[in-house]
Amino acid sequence: MGRRPLLLFLSPWLLLLLLLVHGVSSLQFTRDDFPDGFVFGAGTAAYQYEGAAAEDGRRPSIWDTYTHSGRHPEDGTGDVASDGYHKYKEDVKLMGQIGLEAYRFTISWSRLIPTGRGAVNPKGLQFYNSMINELVKAGIQIHVVLYHMDLPQSLQDEYGGWISPKFVEDFAAYAGACFREFGDRVAHWTTVLEPNAMAQACYDVGILPPNRCSYPSGSSNCTPGDSTVEPYLFMHHALLAHASAVKLYREKYQVAQKGIIGINIYSMWFYPFTNSAEDIGATERTKQFIYGWILNPLVFGDYPEAMKKAAGSRLPFFSSYESELVKNAFDFIGLNHYTSVYTSNNDNTVKAPLQDLTADIATLFRDTKNDTPSPEFVPGTLVDPLGLEHALEYIRENYGNLPIYIQENAPAYIVSGVNFKVKKYDFYLTFGPEFLLALHQKPLWRYVELLEKTGKDQGGNARFRCRFSNQVIHGSYSRVKAHLLKIGTIGVATCKKVTVDILGQLEDEMAKAEAISARNLPNNIPLPTESIPFNVATMWDVGGDSYDLFDGGADFPRHAELSLDEPNIERVLKDLRAFDI
Asked: Which of 134, 304, 475, 527 could form a disulfide with 92, with the two C-beta atoms 3.0–4.6 Å apart?
């Protein structure tokens, strides 16, 4: 068989992964296991990839300030990073050689518009235009993220950055410059990466730029902030900035450029630690803070009731105009999903000297049932292939059949030290079969529209409108199926608009789903512990039998020039080309 693409896209789901494969003859997956439209891809972040921090007019960002503050000596700087600013052409060539179909990168606001507003930097514009043109020539689909933790420091100094309402207008103007300059070649836009994670990490516990928190919350090395309100202000303005960018794109650019725009969510799955009502309630409350914080405003125009109850007056509110602005302000929702945790109710938060985001969630987290509980929802190390499926089902049941792009997905590993080896068997993990089943098992969701969620905390019932007859169905997927397939179920009226031909089509879809469910899928699919790290060259172990990954900070040098070990690189490429999907 010939060489096939190694990156996946799917509508309504997108899997954006780099699969590094060794010993591929043991795999049973073929291209037929994946729906048409899947694309395999990889991604980088500007600060961790570009380097050239002070070249050609780029000005400092809050990430530069954070890494140069001296408070976090264990973290490298992005001064050199992977030197992608100078070596992007050879990186694009490598992407083509290993068969990537898509590449997601972030734009450095500080490089394109160094002071945060005003004129575009010609050198920054030249760099991104050149890189985009190289990707176009290579036939690689381009995905652009507008923001990933690198706000121009000048805006942080001027008015506090994200926690000020002034930020919304500046972000929309920056987004507009990107649409104007790059939109003729970029058709996939993500406004903000993982804002729900940034709210806690950047403004509650202060472990990421701009490193803000207040006593007794968070890190002892943080800069003075207010953990009681700043996480909520950050997210509120993030949603308004996102929606403003979407409005601008739809009104001025989308028709001509024919692209799509969305936002990204940091996704985890949460299991109750026990079957007690308290732990089940805490689990549902956590899901509303993680998913509902973003999805509830985007789908319904307001924050979840659980958040209003927990945060009270500290949670900003949407005006009627803002509510309409954010509602439906997306063409897709991106998910970054890595792990799952066990959750239990935390009664001690009512005794806390101040109520911050962590206290409002009022939940303790464990990677396993034997772990010491933690109040912070930081990435864990539990490898849980079913977690992604549960997350997709939760979103569907609570917010409807949204177009979801899975932009990052892999097992979570927390690694200390500079250099570690990952043997080839570590890649053979159990994400594949469960994910494929989640794609196929419930195909009838696309024929109904979610009206409202009506179930209790742990329930999944909702009101749906049939897209054929406009009839309202109250229940879960089983009732949707009974309605559309004309199955006689008490309390469910069958769809009178489903003709014999339509019924045959629906039954064919269900039969395919059942066949896939019954199939003896393999237990393993190779997935990487990281996507394309700071440069593709670092993915290979020169002269060895395993892949080399690095956790040495953004300044860690390139592993080796490819010319130093061409035979080993060619061996790896041969394995990749042999992976028949």
From this structure: 134
Which positions ≥6 away from 545 have C-beta within 8 Å? 22, 424
408 is catalytic: yes
| Residue 230 is among the residues annotated as catalytic for this protein | no
What pLDDT, in 10s, does the model give residues 263-289?
A: 999 999 999 999 999 999 999 999 999
**DSSP-derived 3-state class of residue 343:** strand
pLDDT surpasses 70 at 31: no
Instruction: Write out the H or E segment, with its range, that includes residue 347.
Output: none
463 three-class SS: strand
All domains of the chain in start order, with CATH: 158-377+388-399 (3.20.20.80), 444-518 (no CATH)
Section 124-136 average pLDDT: 98
Q: Which of 101, 408, 434, 530 is catalytic?
A: 408
Selected catalytic residue, list 194, 230, 284, 397: 194
- Which contiguous run of DSSP H or E holds residue 334? strand 332-345
CA 191 – CA 330 distance, rounded (Å): 10
As a whole number of angstroms, the distance between CA 192 and CA 37 comes to 24
What would the DSSP string read from start to end of 37-99? T--BEEE--HHHHT--TTSTT---BHHHHHHTSSS-TTSPPSSSTT-HHHHHHHHHHHHHHTT
Q: H or E stretch including 29?
A: none
